[in-house]
């Protein structure tokens, strides 16, 4: 009886984490779907088609910036090596950094596109700081990429935010991205590193099906550019 109780107590937190991870994957899919469905305000199609990886952090609590603690969780996925389709998602946390948000209790959704192999390699490390270890710029908004500045054209990472319906480019200088091994364990049953998830053709969890389906719908194939 004691063994049953101990086992139940050990499993309960894991089940709760698994449900939380599955819910957050659904929220990430909803954020991407809504942004791409916006008539003229979304991410340029050309950028999605040429991105190596994408990071989506839904429901970021802006008030958390005041205390400087952990303030966002989300997911990354990268192109499969053959350029077709997207990998199973790995989990990330975003911490610290000055991102220019207003103090308050609103929620913000973040989307980042990693535009080359160097940026993807840094993204898949256990931790890296935007701006210090990877160049980042506010992404252009609209259905074409003609409004890109020189900084945007050469940045490894482009980023956007959506707050209270307003979608705009956002520079995330100083923010730190870390992989979340505990959340990966909730999704895959063991503490896999993001690099292993993305590069080893690990099957995606069922909860990720909607997000990956949307990514494949909007950009199943990556056009390799000479700049890569």
Concise description?
It contains eight helices and nine strands.
Report on the architecture of this protein.
- The structure is a single chain.
- This protein has 228 residues and is α+β, with helices and mostly antiparallel strands.
- Helices cover 36% and strands 23% of the residues.
- The protein is built from eight helices and nine strands.
- The chain has helices at 2-37, 45-50, 64-67, 117-123, 150-154, 181-188, 194-199, 209-219; strands at residues 53-61, 70-78, 90-95, 107-114, 127-129, 136-138, 157-163, 166-169, 176-179.
- Strands 1, 2, 3, 4, 5, 6, 7, 8 and 9 form a nine-stranded mixed β-sheet that branches.
- Helix 5 links the parallel strand 6 (136-138) and strand 7.
- Helix 1 packs parallel to helix 8.
Provide the fold topology.
Elements: H1 2-37, H2 45-50, E1 53-61, H3 64-67, E2 70-78, E3 90-95, E4 107-114, H4 117-123, E5 127-129, E6 136-138, H5 150-154, E7 157-163, E8 166-169, E9 176-179, H6 181-188, H7 194-199, H8 209-219
Parallel strand pairs: 6-7
Antiparallel strand pairs: 1-2, 1-4, 2-3, 3-9, 4-7, 5-9, 7-8
